[in-house]
Amino acid sequence: LSTGIIFGLWPALQLSRAQVTAMIQSGARRVAGSVHGRRSHNALIATQIALTLLLLAGAGSAMEGFLRLVHTPLGYDPHHVLSLNLPIHYNSYSTWAARAAYIEQLRAKVAETPGVLTTAVSTDGVPPRNGMSMKFEILGQPAAEERRASIILVGSAYFPLVHIPLLSGRIWSDTETRTRAHVAVVNRTFARRYFPNGSALGHSLKADFDDHPPEILSAPHIADSWLQIVGIVADAKNDGLSKPVAPAIFVPYTLSMQQWIQILVRSQPPPLTLLHAMRARLAAVDPEQQTFNITEDFETIVSDEPEWQQERLAAWVFTIFAALALALSAVGLYSVVSYTVAQRTGEFGIRVALGAQPADILRAVFRSTLASLAAGILAGLALSFALHRGAPLILLAAVVLLSAVCALASLIPAWRASEADPMDALRCP
Question: What is the pTM assigned to this prediction?
Answer without folding.
Answer: 0.73
